[in-house]
Every structure is written in structure tokens, then in C-alpha cells.
Design brief:
Blueprint lengths: L1 H7 L9 H28 L6 E2 L2 E9 L4 E6 L2 E6 L4 E8 L1 E6 L4 E6 L2 E6 L11 E4 L5 E6 L2 E6 L4 E6 L1 E3 L7 E5 L2 E5 L5 E7 L1 E3 L6 E5 L2 E5 L5 E7 L1 E4 L3 E6 L2 E6 L4 E7 L1 E3 L12 E5 L2 E5 L5 E7 L1 E4 L8 E6 L2 E6 L4 E7 L1 E2 L4 H10 L1 H4 L13 E6 L2 E6 L4 E4 L1
Antiparallel strand pairs: 1-2, 2-3, 3-4, 4-5, 6-7, 7-8, 9-10, 10-11, 11-12, 13-14, 14-15, 15-16, 17-18, 18-19, 19-20, 21-22, 22-23, 23-24, 25-26, 26-27, 27-28, 29-30, 30-31, 31-32, 33-34, 34-35, 35-36
Length: 401
């Protein structure tokens, strides 16, 4: 009450009710106390880069390797801190702590430009290498020395011979390896799975392996069985087919190694998941123009457009947005022009995007002329002369800002 009286007795202050002054003050005080307590709890319960270890201002936390193991730095040296038990488990003596493996039991460290594995008692369990890298496996690492590579386990045991190079691909159970100038593949025990006879190998997450032999590309599986003959200039394995290139032209092979689309196109693009019953149509490129073909290579839309796009609204799956002479229009699957090529842009959302916009800006809804169209009507959000308008297929303007 004394505070209120002091304020109200000041000149040039309008008279206010006590609650008009008290409430803002209380809100500010409560907010301040909440933020103070929240930040204090974070500082006590969650390590952060600015926190020190054991009240030592020279030791700071860095990378979080697991739920409780954190890298710790003092000057230019690194160690490992166990936040759960609140103690340093790897002394701050290494040039780097690289990674933690085997559920936090094994640590990869670097000292004097050499990498090796230690356990949580800081006892070395491997030889020293030029580098140690992870693989997609939970039990195998790649060690490197003198430009050679070998597999090791978490106990530092070497598996298989040394190779010129070993690379791991996420999702693949085998690893690409190089011996002299040729490539093959090994399993996680170092056993050869694909012989070293290929000029190049590209592993993927699927069991289809792209390989080059005698300057031609084909596809093999993990047991070196040929899936696609080595007779193409390039090949792109997909889940249910292959995009192949021969004499700079592209075609399509099915999974039975049968050519279902001849190599006559300059580009073949994936089917559109935005389409419903038209999901098997493909966009193709001839020189610098885009067209549409079906799954049996029949021409649906001739290659005469700069771009083709499909609407996200499946109701519009009988319509295609097409770019011609740098202007957008709309065609159907018979290549009939529905909306002339006069617009700078057409939005892909269709009716649903129009309704979403108008509902978000209710003041604009009243500007729509003849608000009688519904989701069964074909209406479009188009950009004309720098601003968006709504039109129907007769090009009648239904809305304009």
C-alpha cells in the first residue's frame, strides 16, 4: 500500500487503481523467478560447454559421446568425463578423443598423430595407427596405416589382410575394398565376398551393387551374381528397375534385365507419387524439352515443354501444370490446353491451398466474387503481373487482392 501511495502522489502520474500497478509488477517478478530457477536447474543437472569440472576453471566439457560420457578439454589436451558418476574416466592427456564404442567401454583416442583404442581404465587395447574409422557395423572398425587399411574389432584384433583402401556404406553388410588398382568387397570378418577384378564398385543400402568391368557398367549382388550385363555407359539401380545409359541416351531395364524403355532419351525422371491412377507415368527429356510417357513407353505428352508439374491435391490428377516459352499454363493428359500459357506461376496446392489461405486471412474471403465454387470445381491460384489471383478454367478472376 505504501508503494501504491508513493506512485499515486507523484505529479504527472494519472491516478490508477492499485491492481493496475500491482499486476504488471507481479507478472514481471514471477517471470524473473521462474527463469532464474529454470536456468539454475539446467546448470545443476545438464553439463554444457560453459560448465567446469570439479570447480577447475581450466577444464571444460565438449562433445557428448553418449548419455553420460562427455569429452573434456584442458588447454589443448582432451579426456573423457563420466557425468553419471561425476568423475574423469580418461585422463586429460590426449591430443583428441575421437569416438566411444561398445556401449561406452572402448574409446578411440589420438596422441602424437597416432590413433588407438583404450578401455575405461585408460589401458591401450590396440596397436597405434594413422587413423581409425567407424563402419556401419556395431562391432568392426577400419584402421589405417601407411596408406593401407585393415579391419579391427573393439579389442584391437586385426581381421583379414591389409588393403589399399576399405570403405563402409551405411546399410550395407559388406565393405568395398581396393587391392592395387582393382576393387572387390569383403565382409565384416575380412573375408572376400566379391573378387578383386572390377575397375570400380559402388555399394548402396540395397543388395544391388553397381560395378564397372572393361569400361562398361553392370550390376551384381553380394555374391557376385550378375544382375545386369556389363554393357552400359552408366547405370542407376533403383528398387524395382534400372535407369541405364548407352551412347549418352537413357532407357529403363526391369528387374529381369529386360529393356522396357529404349535408350533414346536425354533424361528419364521418376514417377510422381503425387498422382493417383497416373502414378506409372514418367517425365522424359529430349534435348531441352520435357514430355510424358507411360510404363510401356507410349508418348502421352510430347516433349515440347520446359517443365511439367503435378498438383499435390489428388483431385487435380487429370491436370498438369506446364511451362512453355517461360509462361505457365494447364493441360490435361490428352495435351489439351485448359488454361493458356499466360502466368508467371501456378501454385501446386489446388483447391485445398486456396481454402487454407482464405481461412487464414478471413478479410480476403469477402473479396472472392461468386463464392459458389467447392472442392469439385477446378480453381487455381496463379501469379499474374506480380500478384496472385484465383481463376477458374474459363479464366474468370474470382479473387484479387
Amino acid at each position: 500500500m505504501k508503494y501504491w501511495a508513493t506512485v499515486q502522489n507523484q505529479k504527472n502520474y494519472p491516478k490508477q487503481k492499485p491492481q493496475q500497478i500491482l499486476l504488471p509488477f507481479m507478472r514481471t517478478t514471477v517471470l524473473f523467478l521462474f527463469l532464474f530457477i529454470y536456468n539454475l536447474s539446467l546448470a545443476q543437472n545438464k553439463p554444457a560447454n560453459e560448465l567446469t569440472i570439479r570447480n577447475d576453471p581450466e577444464q571444460r566439457l565438449g562433445t557428448c559421446f553418449s548419455n553420460s560420457l562427455w569429452g573434456i578439454q584442458e588447454g589443448k589436451k582432451y579426456g573423457l568425463y563420466d557425468d553419471k558418476n561425476k568423475k574423469i574416466v580418461i585422463p586429460v592427456q590426449y591430443d583428441n578423443v575421437i569416438a566411444v564404442y561398445d556401449n561406452g567401454k572402448i574409446v578411440s583416442v589420438e596422441a602424437d598423430k597416432k590413433s588407438f583404442l583404450v578401455d575405461l581404465q585408460n589401458k591401450p587395447v590396440s596397436k597405434k595407427y594413422d587413423g581409425i574409422r567407424s563402419t556401419s557395423s556395431l562391432s568392426t572398425l577400419i584402421a589405417e596405416k601407411d596408406n593401407k587399411s585393415i579391419l579391427i574389432d573393439f579389442n584391437g584384433k586385426e581381421k583379414g589382410p591389409w588393403y589399399d583402401k576399405i570403405d563402409s556404406t551405411y546399410g550395407s553388410e559388406i565393405l568395398m575394398a581396393q587391392s592395387n588398382t582393382l576393387y572387390g568387397a569383403i565382409d565384416l570378418n575380412g573375408t572376400i565376398k566379391i573378387p578383386f577384378k572390377y575397375q570400380s564398385i559402388e555399394l548402396g543400402s540395397s543388395k544391388k551393387i553397381k560395378a564397372q568391368l572393361n569400361n562398361q557398367w553392370g550390376v551384381i549382388d553380394e555374391n557376385n551374381k550378375v544382375l545386369v550385363d556389363f554393357k552400359y555407359d552408366d547405370i542407376e539401380p533403383r528398387s524395382d528397375e534400372y535407369i541405364v545409359t548407352k551412347n549418352r541416351k537413357k532407357g529403363v531395364l526391369d528387374n529381369k534385365n529386360k529393356l522396357i524403355i529404349d535408350c533414346v532419351y536425354d533424361g528419364i525422371y521418376g514417377t510422381s507419387d503425387k498422382l493417383d491412377k497416373h502414378s506409372k507415368y514418367r517425365q522424359v527429356k529430349l534435348e531441352d524439352k520435357i514430355g510424358l510417357i507411360d510404363s510401356t513407353a507410349n508418348t502421352i505428352i510430347p516433349a515440347e515443354y520446359e517443365n511439367l508439374n503435378f498438383f499435390e491435391d489428388l483431385k487435380f490428377n487429370k491436370r498438369i501444370m506446364a511451362l512453355k516459352n517461360n509462361k505457365w499454363g494447364i493441360i490435361d493428359f490428352d495435351n489439351k490446353v485448359i488454361v493458356p500459357f499466360e502466368y508467371e506461376k501456378i501454385k501446386r496446392g489446388g483447391y485445398s491451398e486456396i481454402i487454407e489461405y482464405l481461412n487464414a486471412v478471413p478479410t480476403e474471403k469477402s473479396k472472392v466474387k461468386n463464392w459458389s465454387f467447392n472442392e469439385n470445381d477446378f480453381v487455381y491460384f496463379v501469379k499474374s503481373n506480380g500478384e496472385y489471383i484465383i481463376i477458374n478454367e474459363k479464366q474468370k478472376v474470382l479473387y484479387k487482392k
